[in-house]
Amino acid sequence: MSFEYTPPKYAQLIAEIERRIESGEYPPGSPLPSEHQLMAEFGMARPTVVKALGVLRDNGWIISEQGKGRFVRGRPALAAGQHPRTGRELLDRKEIPSTTRLVSAGLVKAPRRIASYLGLDDGASVVLRRTVVHQGDEPSEIVSVWLRSELAEGTALAASAELPQGVGRLVESAAGVGLDHIVEHLTARNPTKEERGLLGVAASAALLDLYAVACDATGKAHVVLQTVLPGDRHELEDAYPIR
Amino acid sequence: MSFEYTPPKYAQLIAEIERRIESGEYPPGSPLPSEHQLMAEFGMARPTVVKALGVLRDNGWIISEQGKGRFVRGRPALAAGQHPRTGRELLDRKEIPSTTRLVSAGLVKAPRRIASYLGLDDGASVVLRRTVVHQGDEPSEIVSVWLRSELAEGTALAASAELPQGVGRLVESAAGVGLDHIVEHLTARNPTKEERGLLGVAASAALLDLYAVACDATGKAHVVLQTVLPGDRHELEDAYPIR
DNA sequence: TCAGGCAGCTTGGCCAGTCAAGCTGGCTGA
DNA sequence: TCAGCCAGCTTGACTGGCCAAGCTGCCTGA
């Protein structure tokens, strides 16, 4: 009995063509061998070759023009999920004692914005968990987690110990659904009095204020993550295709 | 002779299944009819059915589990490109005389950041085109376009007339390449003296400062778009899948 | 009783071939 | 000469069939 794993033929062809494009053997703009040439070279049937080329096209490696051929675009500059988005990163982040200080964890009245994101009435009770993250000696970020109180009860989210795992996992197991997507809201503002103290910034400082609402596949919001970043210490980066 | 267009069979099947999911006929979590049932109902061969279902899976409508079946996830909450990203929107935006005022258009020494994004030496000459966008009576946004001088020469970008079309199109035809993706850099800061005047904000105001670098498929940067937004008048929104 | 195996379902992968649509370059006939 | 046609290439769409892998429930034999 053997447990070796051989990837499907079409996947092998994908890998080989990607390698040739990266190595410069198939330079950008040049035509790929035709389907029949690839069939002959790799000993595959046409649908197999076509499937591989279809994946390469969907992933941006090549373009195809009916009647002309397929042409190399180059290595896709955007490998999806290359540098993770901020909200996504917050969802997975673990609280590391040496850099994270818990400020509060417990029930509060939901601010209007949070209630709106979570689909609650204004002033409903929610659980707020707030930490300050340090970089070196300086405080560099205030991270807040907001969620419906019934979701946090009895979980590590409402306790004052460091979170053993990312918020995303905790919420998924507490809510019994998978988180599907994130909606981010971003703005710039001056600090509140509390934030001046926590971050050690001037009243006139410019802060990035980012809310990340994590929803399940049906669009229902389960948790809101907020991070407040001094603009002079942080720059957010993001990349996406144009079409 | 007829010029009617009939979409491919697999596309018709995709549309029909999407319709049934949206209508509630196939509720989230329920199993889809098996491949053989769909073959019988729609009179298609198996690969045709499989292709349609593969597209639906790639687009997030359904998931498939080998040995069990395919299951409805629901309408994907994120129709890609649903609300266009800021940098992308800047690339397409036209200058409307009633809301846009041209501040400057011509050669300047490239600031360090711009030179770095465009891959130029520090202090190289670049073309800067800067406009103030009004919303109602108030100035609400400063938009700047930076690009290599040889690209802008002889085009509408270096002229003081309103742009007849989006910056993206102009750059693509001037550079002779298609723009492929955008890299965004975002931070918060206080206004410069010039920006205080143009936007009519206090020295302590918090501004969103967004740079969008538009690159071709090989990763070469062709144009940098910058927008400066008072934080109290703007909120950026974005959504993306978690996995 | 109940563990194990097997039949029958599902999806995944692959093949050989057909027809249609679109492009290109060479040939042909005016 | 040169406009127009057409052969021969390309990719796109589709068919009918095969075998493998994985899951589930029934059924059989210890």
UniProtKB/TrEMBL annotation, chains A, B:
<protein>
    <submittedName>
        <fullName>GntR family transcriptional regulator</fullName>
    </submittedName>
</protein>
<dbReference type="Pfam" id="PF07702">
    <property type="entry name" value="UTRA"/>
</dbReference>
<feature type="domain" description="HTH gntR-type">
    <location>
        <begin position="7"/>
        <end position="75"/>
    </location>
</feature>
<keyword id="KW-0804">Transcription</keyword>
<keyword id="KW-0805">Transcription regulation</keyword>
<dbReference type="Pfam" id="PF00392">
    <property type="entry name" value="GntR"/>
</dbReference>
<dbReference type="InterPro" id="IPR011663">
    <property type="entry name" value="UTRA"/>
</dbReference>
<dbReference type="InterPro" id="IPR000524">
    <property type="entry name" value="Tscrpt_reg_HTH_GntR"/>
</dbReference>
<dbReference type="InterPro" id="IPR036390">
    <property type="entry name" value="WH_DNA-bd_sf"/>
</dbReference>
<keyword id="KW-0238">DNA-binding</keyword>
<dbReference type="InterPro" id="IPR028978">
    <property type="entry name" value="Chorismate_lyase_/UTRA_dom_sf"/>
</dbReference>
<dbReference type="InterPro" id="IPR050679">
    <property type="entry name" value="Bact_HTH_transcr_reg"/>
</dbReference>
<dbReference type="InterPro" id="IPR036388">
    <property type="entry name" value="WH-like_DNA-bd_sf"/>
</dbReference>
